[in-house]
Amino acid sequence: MPGYRLVLDVMASTLAARRPQPTCVLVPGCGTGAELSAAALAMPDALFTAIDPSQGMLDVARHKAKADGSHARIAFHHGLLDETGPDLHDAAMLSLVLHFLPDDGAKRDLLAGIARRLSAGAPLLLVDAVKPDDDDAALRDWLRRRGHSSAEASAVIERMQESWHRVPLERLIGLLEQAGFHIREPFFRAFGYLGILAERA
Ligand SMILES: C[S@@+](CC[C@H](N)C(=O)[O-])C[C@H]1O[C@@H](n2cnc3c(N)ncnc32)[C@H](O)[C@@H]1O
Hints:
One of its GO terms (molecular function) is methyltransferase activity. InterPro entries: Methyltransf_25, SAM-dependent_MTases_sf. By secondary structure, this protein is of the alpha/beta class. The chain folds into two domains: 4-131 and 166-200, Rossmann fold (3-Layer(aba) Sandwich), CATH 3.40.50.150; 132-165, no CATH class. The protein contains seven helices and seven strands. The chain has helices at residues 4-16, 34-42, 55-68, 106-116, 137-145, 150-163, 169-179; strands at 24-28, 47-52, 74-78, 91-95, 123-129, 181-190, 193-200. Helix 2 (34-42) packs parallel to helix 3. The chain starts with a helix and ends with a strand. Bound molecules: S-adenosylmethionine (SAM).
């Protein structure tokens, strides 16, 4: 993802700068813990609920948290969000998960599950890939300039176009609103990758 490191820093600082600062952050689809560890380091008093259906990913996240000293503040759950308790959180991060889910109710259900676990006004920092207007031409050009061969760039874009479930930005906004979020502002955009700050209505 272009700008991934920057996005992690922006998410962490956006949460850390909120007043009151979040005390309990939900991180579904935490993967290997990238946004989790960035936010845990930026907010040394906050607690986290980190969830992922992949045990392998979760093991890496746990290992990272032990290494950076944030482990005691993170409750790790192996599984899906709906298999965890209904506890309320005062912030959430959902990074690079939604585009893996089909738009057959699965995206909406995940967003609604997050909304149910957030207190009123709590922020959701969403990072996702939407369907760009240019058929990924600009991303292809960027990949080539980064030194990838034409075949490598084509393979990346083919996977995104055929295996991912990207929706247009307007649809993503509609799904967020249906799930019970107000859109506050975009905080990142590079090609079809974007970051949106939404708040629980
Ligand atoms: C590309 S990784 C993103 C990891 C991390 N959030 C990041 O930004 O680096 C996608 C993650 O979503 C998880 N995942 C897949 N299906 C999911 C679902 N239905 N609910 C939550 N997470 C899911 C995968 O196991 C994987 O760890």
